[in-house]
UniProtKB/TrEMBL annotation, chains A, B:
It catalyses: N(2)-acetyl-L-ornithine + L-glutamate = N-acetyl-L-glutamate + L-ornithine; L-glutamate + acetyl-CoA = N-acetyl-L-glutamate + CoA + H(+). Belongs to the ArgJ family. This is Arginine biosynthesis bifunctional protein ArgJ. One of its GO terms (biological process) is ornithine biosynthetic process. The record marks T113, G114 as: Involved in the stabilization of negative charge on the oxyanion by the formation of the oxyanion hole.
Amino acid sequence: MKPVEGGVTAPKGFRAAGIHCGIRKNKTKKDLALIVSDCDANVAAVYTQNVVKGAPNRVTKEHMKAGNCRAILCNSGIANTCETDGVEKAEQMAAAAAQLLGVKTTDVAVASTGVIGQPLPVDVIAAGLPQLVGELSPQGGHDAAVAIMTTDTYPKEAAAEFTVGGKTARIGAIAKGSGMINPNMATMLSFITSDCAISSAMLDRALREVVGVTYNCLVIDGDTSTNDMVILLANGQAQNAEITGAGPDYEAFEAALLSVCRSIVKMLAADGEGATKYLECHIRGCRDTASGRVLAKSVMSSSLVKTAFFGADANWGRILCALGYSGVDFDPQKVNVSFHSAAGDILVCQNGGSVEFSEELAKRILSEKEITLTIEMHEGEAEAVAYGCDLTYDYVKINGDYRT
Amino acid sequence: MKPVEGGVTAPKGFRAAGIHCGIRKNKTKKDLALIVSDCDANVAAVYTQNVVKGAPNRVTKEHMKAGNCRAILCNSGIANTCETDGVEKAEQMAAAAAQLLGVKTTDVAVASTGVIGQPLPVDVIAAGLPQLVGELSPQGGHDAAVAIMTTDTYPKEAAAEFTVGGKTARIGAIAKGSGMINPNMATMLSFITSDCAISSAMLDRALREVVGVTYNCLVIDGDTSTNDMVILLANGQAQNAEITGAGPDYEAFEAALLSVCRSIVKMLAADGEGATKYLECHIRGCRDTASGRVLAKSVMSSSLVKTAFFGADANWGRILCALGYSGVDFDPQKVNVSFHSAAGDILVCQNGGSVEFSEELAKRILSEKEITLTIEMHEGEAEAVAYGCDLTYDYVKINGDYRT
């Protein structure tokens, strides 16, 4: 397996495009993306667990039930959520794209991201669609990644190549993140393509396995969005023998998917709203991975921990505090905490208590852009990782007046 | 019932003092408080549910088991938490105070608040105790309130007078709050005194009832502290017939306790770290009070909701989002949201969707210092309230470098 360029258009048989259609006032910001598979693709998807669900989520979930997908249409700027005619508008988006592409409406997935509770100008989207379809290209993955951005400061794309059944296959992905990010059994918007031949059942299994340890272990601000969605398409153009069960082929596919999704999640964390630092929290020696994830996410969700990292302050007491209110039981007197970055390693807490360390070295380590917290629980053999970022003035600035 | 001055020394038979003993470098900041009952007092207490518990919490819980208390000794600056000799030091604090006061060590409650994971200079506390005991006074409640402050910008005290069994009784309280505030079945530090005669069992019942709807409905930053503690003393000096069961006397006591604790909680919320606005979230028409509290606390915990209030932005979609991920099931299409302040009332969301409203009026309403969010669920008859504040640049500033 190796990383490759091209995002969602890296795999064979996918084209994409991204344009400014007019949802956003800023004409230099693309706001409409389309990803198309040239042939039928098996599809797996996971959606937000928020009780308040975006209209596009409901429509896409219904459309994807048959397990087939030809296109994903996504706008940024307005979330099409909490509007009485939202479902109707999401259906209109899908129907308009389906007509231009000559596919069934139920083969089109739709997604929206942006402000909740504002009316979606579906006529503006419909008017932009002919241009969008005209610009579809096997090199269009990047434009699509740009078009789905909201407060993201850069587009998120990743792709990998791997061998399966003697054939070369690829997986590519794009995503948007930044704020309202605390995925729960689903995620912010992420669209993943593959030319691997794999059954719907195995595709679904791979997606759920990988989402559990990547997107679902990401925390920006603890707010689980109403519009979270990950869609994975596989169109079989790599011409490998279809993967229909466990075995080396499935493992190769899952490993490549994990690699691509982990890359995307790291980009999402590093580009969290207002973030100046990328944080990884590794829990080692926990009883099981489920409780390890709860511990890691509790630490990555703590406003006090996040602000301490912003200030490059080795305030490990806040980390113990966040472990302690996670809901997981453990013996605090067995916990060690250390920090790692390009500037070095430092142990700051041993057996749940203070240990002498150089504040100067700690400051240097915590002043780097990428920091790993390692927490040794000494309770068992399992491990877990959560991904996050610091809490900064800019997070407050960005969200103090997002709508205007 | 009427509010009165005097905080914890408002009830008969209580003296208090607060001094600078030297835990803090800033000599103008008091850092040691003592509250003494002139006779034995029944005691009820609730403590943090964090797995990582401060040493003073463990010692006080043990001491208070017999149901009797004569004194509360509390320092600010260092939390005496996550230190191997923390319990020993907390015991030393209690013993030193007990000796000077001529009471049993187990009749002394101790508490500490401040940085976690730094050694408590118990010798400095012991050296300051004679002065502290010498300054004990029936007017000393305010000094004690000042001495327990950390990043609080003003002391929190409240007291009320009520009639019970034909006698006049009082309840007084102080508290410290500001950060690491998300009480769970207990709270930040709050010390409450009363001269009412009431049995230990009824005292405990009243405290648990009132804490459930006051301290436990307060959110500053979602971090449940390791050192949360509420202690309620009742010394019987009002000479009413002891309250030993339900009835009008118990109801009068509980109503006065609720009034005092609600006042304290409002002060704690308004003075949350970096806060510029006091927020109350009222859930109406929910299925039961328990689910109502979960909904209200979810809204008050959301970083996105809190930053929107900082920016006076009527971004009601974030409120629906936070209700949606609270874990409580409901029909989003029945939800109304309105804002209220001294500048007026405004409905911003009806039946889970947008409604036309004046952005200009909304801005004026949200620019006030005290704002009430009212959320009508239309699911039942119950109500609940949570208390909180906005998330600001100053929260990030204060917590980016708290230790130094």
